[in-house]
């Protein structure tokens, strides 16, 4: 059974038999489409009937590396479980591969953070002799300088670069716009990319206002950003699990470690609630421990 046929039948089932709201149906279908996209991207030629638990675990690892939150991962897994429950009910499959698939724990997890030296090491690993080298350097400098989400980086527009004022305007979750300060280093690297590399591309008409483009002149995907960073990580001796979101985590942590106001960091990250920003106040635990040992009277 082809994926598109199975997904279409599942959609009819949700609409006609389960009588779900349109938004709920869209969410379920999007979840299953993510799995189908994963199989296509990694060239796993598998139909819905041939999926095994090991493939599903690889998929969960992949969406985790893309920076998807535990809550979103849990929802995606729920959607895929509903899909396979439907296939069992319709006698399309006999054994449900999702029966032993566990959802991620939803407890608050401290994010992986890179040191300034590790970020410099990654940037130095970029091969500037390649056409995409300067683009990649400008992208990583922007991720770290501005603490952007991946979608905010890929959607960054030329008309939203206000370098004379030292700001860029980004579109975050819920299409909410915010102004974010940008460092002189990031401005320099973006200008080099725009003036010496991007202007030689044959730009696709739908991407004329997009800053960072692929070699075909089109907007980059978030998967491509992850792939670029994963390949850079392989070239270095950094053992941490690095994703585009790692640069956002590092941006926030380094600001707060340096004494930045939590409200200001919340504004720059585009967090709805300050409780989301507070995860970055874990600081350096060894530093806190050493400080207590050094100054506490009972130590």
Top keywords for this entry?
299 residues; mainly alpha; DNA polymerase, domain 1; hpI Integrase, Chain A; 3-stranded antiparallel beta sheet; 13 helices; elongated
Give a description of the structure:
This protein is mainly alpha-helical. The protein folds into 2 domains: 3-89, Orthogonal Bundle (DNA polymerase, domain 1); 116-288, Intergrase catalytic core (hpI Integrase, Chain A). It is 54% helix and 4% strand. The chain contains 13 helices and 3 strands, in the order H-H-H-H-H-H-H-E-E-E-H-H-H-H-H-H. It has helices at residues 3-17, 22-41, 53-65, 70-89, 116-124, 133-146, 150-154, 184-196, 222-235, 244-257, 262-269, 274-277, 285-295; strands at 161-162, 167-171, 177-181. It has a 3-stranded antiparallel sheet with strand order 1-2-3. A hairpin with a 5-residue loop joins strand 2 (167-171) and strand 3 (177-181). Helix 2 (22-41) crosses helix 4 and helix 6 (133-146) runs antiparallel to helix 8. The longest helix has 20 residues, at 22-41. It starts with a helix and ends with a helix. Residues 283-288 have low confidence and may be disordered.
Number of domains: 2
Rg from alpha-carbon coordinates = 22 Å
> Can you write the helix and strand succession as a string?
HHHHHHHEEEHHHHHH
Please write the CATH class name of the largest domain. Answer: Mainly Alpha
Beta-strand percentage range: under 5%
Low-confidence stretches: 283-288
Biggest beta-sheet profile:
3 strands, antiparallel
Query: If classified by CATH, what would the architecture of the largest domain be?
Result: Orthogonal Bundle
Q: Cα distance, first to last residue? A: 68 Å
CATH topology of the largest domain: hpI Integrase, Chain A
Q: What class would the helix/strand composition place it in?
A: mainly alpha
| Number of E-state strands | 3
| pLDDT averaged residue by residue | 84
Secondary structure: helix percent: 40-55%
Number of helix segments? Answer: 13
Taken from the alpha-carbon principal axes, the silhouette is elongated
CATH superfamily of the largest domain: Intergrase catalytic core
Strand arrangement across the biggest beta sheet: 1-2-3
